[in-house]
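hi!! sorry for the late reply, been swamped w classes. u asked for the two structures so here they r. pasted raw, havent cleaned anything up. first the sequence of the first protein and right below it the tokens
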Amino acid sequence: MSSPRELLLPSTGTTLFDDFISNDAVTDNAIGQLGWQFTTIGTAATLAYQTSKQHGVLRITTASNADGDGTVLHSFPDGLVLKPGIEFGARIGYPVELASMNFRVGLDDSVTATRPTVGIGFESNAGVLTCVNDSATEGDESLAVTGHPDLTSGTTMIVAADVDFKFVCSGKANAQGGPSEVDYFVNDVHVAKLPCGIDDDEPVEMKFAVWQDSGGADAVAIEIDYYQLFIPR
């Protein structure tokens, strides 16, 4: 992200940040400091603040009921469009195991496990990472993360080792008014630069979607430490 001082200046843009610090149980659609809503995929997951962790962490554990169970956290409904200068960051980890647990994080229009029609972000399939951006009219782009020094075989997250994700909508506006390219970073290592055709009137939301695909009932967990978004003026 840009320097904290720059991001906090209202003249440069709006900074949204959630560190998931709370002593309360997660009991309603007002999660974290930003009041995230959640949508259930299949059977409801268990959401719990990890109050023993100083910087605030939210753990999501899927229900041990059926294949595909999960939860989608979403905020800023239909009030956000993508344009040059937007920056996103989040820290996510697998606390217990990688197998069967998947996530998608960033900005998009999907509240299911299905890849969005419009959006920019990262996908994890049991820890294997991919950078993505999708447009309803101009096509989709994706690139698997490879050769990363902090990942197993350069591609896969490690249990109990949180990862920082970041993307920057860089370059000039494309022909549709959205960002022309997106730079992706994992633990501050540049892992991809993808062209982007997203229109500046395709609405998205802040998003963190998790689900398991074990083929049956399975309770698996994932944790999010923070979520940050900078929207330039």
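now the second protein. again sequence first, tokens right under
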Amino acid sequence: MKRKWLLIIISVVLVSSCSLNYGDKKNEFDKMPNFVFKDASLDRYEDDKVSLKIKFEELEVYDQDKIWVGKKIHFTQINKNAKSDKNNKSKKMIESKGYAGLIKIDEEKEQYFLGEKVFFEDVKEKLLISGKAFFWDKNAGLLYAPSKDIISIKKADELYIKGSGFIANTISREFEFSNSIEGTISTEKNEPEQAEKNDSEGEKNE
């Protein structure tokens, strides 16, 4: 499989100090970035077809440490094998999309931090996940949030729940809440049921 990255740079700035505001995580980014890209797009190609599109307001690259830090990131995953559909071509090609106000990527460890309001949408499954911050360990196949953060999950008109202690297995596509949850679940008869708070059992979704 051939993979290549294409950077469409509107402006590139060489800087001598870190410019993004990282709040509590600032001490992790004290090193000088090699490059700062502003108002740019990043496309990933697989087999000469676009598989991922990213737009960002600002991106800092720490080349030696293989660390990328971005601000106001919009990303769209493309189904490069989707057949053309004249009536709804763009919608059919999009597998998932999302946004993060802040993102840190450790390319070597394949670990990701997303913060300052985050949402993911699985277009095909009509599944939307949102919260303040998430950690993703790609090697372990785990996506999780800080234990006390409230995470919301919505699946079309079937499900709307929120709770804390969120963790998901990105390989098996299951998730659970280790703390209390509340929300609404529609039954097969389309009769909504209230999901009561539960401190001992998590909610799973395949």
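hope this helps!! also noticed smth abt the second:
The radius of gyration is 19 Å.
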